[in-house]
Specification:
The structure is a single chain. The protein contains 31 helices and six strands. The protein is an all-alpha fold and about 700 residues long.
């Protein structure tokens, strides 16, 4: 059964899941799984009944799905107001006026000690970690009052509404989504708030490209306000990996910035780590889609869930792989060209999509990735392309290819383009788990889509497939796609509000290299904007926890005292699933977003005191070694030769965990956690408080920021 604990829909969605059982194209029926999302069009445009939504939902507030918990991206209602979660701001002096007074009042925040020390630790954690938070108030870009007029009154059959080529009055034919503003690009919708405006004021403007990354790093002066050390090695390690570790920092220092990046951009030459070799303990990763279909019952009996084991493996690679930049890019593309892990058919096809589409092209060519994705059963089933035929066109895939996977909502396409693209792509589908072109379903006739024109006169599978592939390559190389990819990469690696100068240069490199990824990344790392952006990104929940596991040196081997409770799965497999489940609780895990827009990549979308505290609790569990499926470095051994005074010990521990010294005030807060002064004599266990002290340092802005 699929986990329904998934983030709420984005407010752009104008269709609602009706919760009814749905027969899958493969012939399976699993009423527990959410449907493949169709986010914009009313149900009567499709020959299936996946959605029973209406196009005019401007007054609807989208809450959680059935059984869904609250953690996840902070969402906004269709009216443009932020969904209130209660107190959201914790300032440097503790919770603000909307807070909980001096006490967060949340469970499991304290160690089992006396009330005085417990209150002290609670205040220190709230004050220290809270400085990384951003006020999430303010209205997003709202759905305007024009929505009803744009779509017309479908129930009344409004004859004055704009009409599509098929006469359907529900589509504003000939008008661009960006101009009618029925919805906005996802990150933009979150940044259209007071918090987003505040972030923009601290973003460096302007810059230039240098001869290489090392030259850019040496020539760039960091001028933005930040608590992070203005150290280029630390900066690169936190942006190009899932978390700096002593080994990563030493590798960059030893190899140099340019050589380290060249090494990372050639992942095939990087040897797999011990943890990656242990992925053989996840049995479904070795099976083809055909084998997964044939062995479904046996796998269920063994408790093996292919779609979850794929996520487990991704988490393992993020924590332990030396191919860190590659894994960061895999995560980027999994949000950009997003196919959820949990959908009808995902248990059979999603791992193959990960291997044969995302990982195959993550550092090579986006045009080839888009073409491969549109021939893969996972995407075709996820977006209902299997249901599309000439006499009953399903627009899901055609729309997302334009809005999300290429030119973007501001890319210049119209509703007429969507319809034409959907007609061109009829015929593509899935039969017996394999991609197939069904000529009897294919529409024949001239099409024109965003400047792409073709006679589309043949139902011959080879010719029709070649035409569709040519259209997809045209989309992937469109100037709007170049800019959309550039904007997304700059948002991931540089800032939630990346400078236009950088986006323009990245788009130019993308176009000049026909969608090749490595040249774009080298332009990014050779730009002064990247090196000037220290402290401009905040870790999302998954990134925060993965960075914690990395910096604490958790090992993939089981602890000596591990006791198996289930012989069907190895300790490693069980441990990965426990991390996976924890990330689900936080609403952020690989390929977890149910809708095809992927997770938002700006911190304003993730502001939540509850999520922050749950992350701190996880840090406490890791420091205490509670998950015995793994091995841990004892907190008192994190520093090789611990100083004998509390102040010096805090300095040494901060350099080990967050790779820099703390300010005098931060250091005072940390000492307050232990209830000692800087000159107090301490042993290696910090007089019994080492776990609390390390946990507080990992709750600091220096660990939340990247």
């Amino acid at each position: 059964m699929a986990d329904q604990n998934v983030p709420p829909r984005h407010p752009r969605d104008d269709g609602r899941w009706d919760g009814r059982p749905h027969p899958t194209p493969d012939g399976y029926r699993d009423p527990a799984r959410p449907y493949a999302p169709s986010r914009h069009a009313p149900a009567d445009q499709y020959h299936d009944d996946t959605y029973a939504g209406r196009p005019d939902d401007s007054q609807t507030s989208y809450g959680p799905w059935p059984g869904q918990a609250q953690p996840g991206p902070a969402t906004r209602s269709g009216s443009g107001e932020p969904r209130r979660r209660g107190p959201q701001w914790i300032g440097p002096a503790g919770p603000g006026p909307q807070g909980y007074g001096g006490d967060l009042g949340l469970p499991n925040l304290d160690d089992d000690e006396g009330d005085g020390r417990r209150r002290s630790r609670r205040r220190a954690l709230a004050a220290f970690g809270g400085t990384a938070a951003v006020i999430a108030g303010g209205a997003a870009l709202a759905m305007t009052p024009q929505v009803r007029g744009l779509f017309g009154d479908a129930a009344a059959g409004d004859a004055t509404a704009p009409r599509a080529t098929d006469g359907n009055p529900n589509r504003p034919s000939g008008r661009q989504p960006s101009t009618v503003r029925t919805y906005t690009e996802q990150n933009e919708s979150y940044m259209g708030s007071r918090a987003g405006t505040a972030l923009k004021r601290n973003t460096p403007a302007g810059g230039r490209t240098f001869s290489g990354p090392a030259a850019a790093a040496a020539a760039t002066t960091v001028t933005v306000k930040t608590v992070l050390a203005k150290d280029p090695v630390r900066h690169l390690a936190t942006r190009a990996t899932f978390g700096a570790t002593p080994k990563v920092l030493a590798d960059i220092e030893r190899m140099g910035i340019d050589a380290w990046l060249r090494w990372q951009l050639d992942p095939e030459k990087i040897a797999p780590t011990r943890a990656e070799l242990k992925l053989s303990e996840l049995p479904t990763l070795r099976l083809t889609p055909t084998q997964l279909r044939e062995q479904r019952d046996q796998l269920n009996e063994r408790g093996a869930q292919p779609e979850k084991e794929m996520v487990d493996a991704t988490i393992a690679r993020q924590i332990w792989s030396d191919r860190q930049l590659f894994e960061v890019m895999v995560d980027f593309w999994n949000d950009f060209l997003h196919v959820a892990a949990d959908f009808d058919g995902g248990e059979v096809h999603r791992h193959s999509f990960d291997v044969d589409v995302v990982r195959k092209y993550a550092l090579t060519s986006y045009p080839e990735m888009l073409v491969a994705a549109n021939r893969h059963p996972a995407l075709l089933l996820y977006l209902n392309q299997n249901d599309s035929r000439a006499d009953a066109v399903n627009e899901n895939l055609a729309r997302e290819n334009l809005e999300l996977y290429s030119v973007g909502v501001d890319g210049g396409y119209t509703e007429s383009d969507v319809r034409q693209a959907a007609m061109l792509q009829t015929g593509r589908g899935v039969r017996d788990g394999e991609y197939v072109f069904r000529e009897d379903r294919h529409y024949v006739g001239k099409v024109r889509i965003l400047g792409f024109t073709h006679a589309n006169s043949s139902r011959d599978p080879k010719k029709a497939d070649a035409t569709i592939d040519a259209y997809l390559r045209y989309l992937a190389l469109h100037p709007s796609t170049a800019r959309y990819v550039a904007q997304s990469l700059a948002t991931r690696f540089v800032s939630d509000t990346p400078p236009k100068t950088l986006v323009d240069r990245l788009a130019k490199t993308y176009a000049a290299n026909e969608g090749l990824i490595k040249p774009v990344l080298m332009t990014l790392f050779s730009s002064s904007e990247f090196w000037a952006s220290v402290g401009q990104k905040v870790r999302r929940p998954m990134e925060y926890l993965i960075a914690t596991y990395r910096v604490l040196g958790v090992s993939p081997e089981a602890s000596a005292d591990y006791q198996a409770g289930d012989d069907r799965r190895t300790p490693y497999a069980r441990g990965l699933r426990r991390i996976h489940d924890r990330l689900r609780e936080l609403g952020h895990y690989p390929m977890g977003q149910p809708t095809p827009d992927g997770y938002p990549d700006v911190y304003v979308a993730w502001t939540s005191a509850g999520t922050m505290v749950n992350g701190w609790n996880e840090v406490g569990d890791v420091l205490s070694g509670h998950r015995r499926e793994f091995s841990y470095v004892k907190p008192e051994r994190l520093v090789a030769k611990p100083p004998t005074t509390a102040g010096a010990y805090v300095d040494a521990l901060a350099r080990r965990l967050v790779h820099q010294k703390l300010t005098a005030r931060e250091k005072s807060l940390i000492l307050g956690v232990a209830g000692v002064s800087a000159g107090t004599r301490v042993d290696a266990t910090f007089n019994g408080a080492i776990t609390a002290v390390a946990r507080a340092i990992l709750a600091s802005p220096q660990h939340h920021l990247r």
